[in-house]
Amino acid sequence: MPVRGFTAKDAARRRRYLKETFTAYLYLLPATVVLVTFHFAPVFYAFYVSLLEWNYISPNPTFVGFANYAALLKDSDFITSLMNTVYYVIGTVPTSMAVALFVAILLNQKIRGLAWYRTVYFLPVITAANAVAIIWFWIYHPDYSGLLNGLLDRLGIPIQSWLLDPKWAMPCIILMSIWKGLGYNVVIFLAGLQNISSEYYEAAQIDGAKGWSIFRYITWPLLSPTTFFVLIISVIGSFQVFSQVYVMTRGGPLKSTLVVVYYLYKIGFEDFKMGYASAMAYALFVIIFTLTLLQRKYIGSRVHYQ
Amino acid sequence: MRASGAPCQGNQLKRVIVGVISVTLLVMLLAGFSSVSAGSKVTITFWHGMGSALGKTLDELVAEFQKQNPDIIVKAEYQGSYGALNQKIMAALAAKKPPTMAQAYGNWVAEYVKSGAVKPVEDFFAGPGGLSKDEIEDFWPELRVGCTFNGRMYTLPFNKSVAIYIYNLTALKEAGLEPPKTWEELLAASKAMTVVKDGKVTRYGMVLRPNVDYFANLLFTNGGRYLDPSGKKAAFNGPEGVEALQFMVDMLHKYKVAYYIPGYADADFGAGKTCGYFATSASYSYTDKAVGGKFEWGIGPIPYKKGPAAPVAGTDLVIFASATPEEQQAAWKFMKWLTSASQTAYWAINTGYIPVRRSALYLRQMKEWMAANPRNAASLNALKFAVTDPNIAEWQDIREIISQAVEEAFLAKATPKEALDKAAEKVNALLAK
Q1: How many degrees, rounded to 5, is the angle at CA B142 between CA B306 and CA B301?
Q2: Residues of chain A contacting B87 with CB distance shorter than 8 Å
């Protein structure tokens, strides 16, 4: 191959390249400034705070190194909150994904009033947790006047005190969360489903495939990038559950719904132990990050990309 | 023409000169005024958590103060619930932009004091605008204790309510009973007012909340206290406390005349689901709204076992250290005025909070109001038995620990003694730090 010299054409190309790069960075600047100021800087600052014993207002915080992290391991409330969070994640993620996929497949048909259904399913996602809580408080009302208990009583089943019962409080929160978050997953699954080319289905039908096998051999593998995405996002989101607990139970009864982020909020913004709260935030970050890596490694490898 | 014009011109000139002089004078005067007012008008901000009817009364007081003190502008700003108020104060302190003054609970102030964020009110006691020894001692002694940290008075008590028992008078009359004064009578009244239909309770005599305040009402009226006199050791798990918690557990599970809810009880009371509950004197307006005239209701002191006690809770007024000396002086003037006998009486009459100064009870308007509202007077008369929460920074944690013990006993996860002993152990560990 002949060695080419540095020509004027190359210089022009290089100039254009530099100019384009510069323009690109200029466009990126506003977003970068916002991200750095409100996202990255606090992230690093929080790490620094996690090494302090600090009440948020004292001018002289005490540097304690990794003592806050060590204390976490000995804090029975933190362990409880971690276990409760895992319970919540296991309770919500698989069920929510299965139901969302089912609903998405139903909504993927050509039916009347499709847009209306989609809106209805998405409404709980964008409704404020406080508003949702009012309805669910009534559903879970601990005596006969509650919707759920009224139903049970009519069926002759003994009524429960739901949110007041340490045994039932978490399942109640899980059920409400599945309902509230469903629409989000439905929309993503729906987008994934519509991305699958109809040619595959036509080909399968010609080959005589029916219902379940179409789903098993066409939809499921081709949808797997979407499913994987929903899984990752759901696990991350569920580990950070907060508002449902905040409005419904405040971690009670008897800490049965104390989850990590609610506990973190309480320590940080009610008890103002900023160092300890920041350490907890970092511990949660490490847990979520590790889990995400593991999911990528073990599940991501089975995803079928078109 | 000319002859007639000359005097006219002279007149015009005079007018112009007079005009110019008067305008100049006016401008100078106005300028002088505005420079004077700019020099002496002080603006102070006052953050509080007094919503709805309470906030309205506070605004009335602020307006009255401004009328009497045109050189001070008070910006009274409602911040939401107490939790939100505390969070906003903390954030503002962190940003080094706190208000001039605020309402604050004793255990919050303990945190501010530790960080050097508070200007102690005792710095203003000396001098003509201060408070004499008699005036200081006019504040209820229990309330003064709550304002004192490391032997110095940092705050002044402001909105303090006393715990009360609220009952459905109509139901009580139907049962042919007098308002209960003792635990025994409370139990009897609750039994009498409980209605059972087809094996289901349709109306309860009492509702409880699984929290430290309900427990404290019974602990104190049984002669018990949270901590021992040293303030470093739990005392609530003594026999007085165990009896208090057992009494509530028995109402729930043995006699089944009560149920419990985590939130406020006024809605259930108004709906006729329960015929009694404990609240504070500041909640009259909420109860009134919830009942909406559907039945007669009454209030009385918390029924006692060993002897009457009046648990008192609420916030104090704090001035922040970062304000300028002028602002602090203005805030002090406002604070002193707000807690003076006649203003605290007005505040008490209109909100249900207690007058923070003893002499207020002897004012004409207070006496008249007490004569017209004998039931409110009863809770005020209990003030000589006032008990307050310790004002230590750990108090929030301790409240949560005790609340947890109460909840465990309610759920029958532990006996009252087991639950309280476990809580006492945790509290002692916390206080030993």
Answers
A1: 40
A2: 269-270
User: CB distance A57–B111 less than 8 Å?
Assistant: yes
- Cα Rg, chain A, nearest whole Å: 26
pLDDT tens-digit readout, A66-117: 999 999 999 999 999 999 999 999 999 999 999 999 999 988 887 788 888 8
The CB density around residue B298, as the number of other CB atoms within 10 Å, is 17
Please tell me the distance from the alpha carbon of residue A196 to that of residue A191, in angstroms, as a whole number.
9
A120–chain B Cβ distance below 8 A for any pair: no
> Given an 8 Å threshold on Cβ–Cβ distance, is B94 in contact with A57?
yes
Helix (H) or strand (E) holding B143: helix B141-146
CA distance B90 to chain A (A): 7
Q: Any idea what DSSP says for residue A157? A: P
* Distance (Å) from the alpha carbon of A57 to chain B's nearest alpha carbon: 5
Mark the ranges of chain A whose per-residue pLDDT is less than 50. 1
Minimal Cα–Cα distance from A182 to chain B, Å?
29
Quick one: tokens of B351?
A: 């909100």
B41-161+314-388: what fold? D-Maltodextrin-Binding Protein; domain 2 (3.40.190)
Strands B148-149 and B152-153: antiparallel
CA angle B174, B180, B186 (to 5 degrees): 95
Which of the four CATH numbers 3.40.190.10, 1.10.3720.10, 3.30.930.10, 2.170.120.30 does domain B164-311+391-432 have?
3.40.190.10
CA–CA separation, A119 and A183 (whole Å)? 9
ipTM, two decimals: 0.79
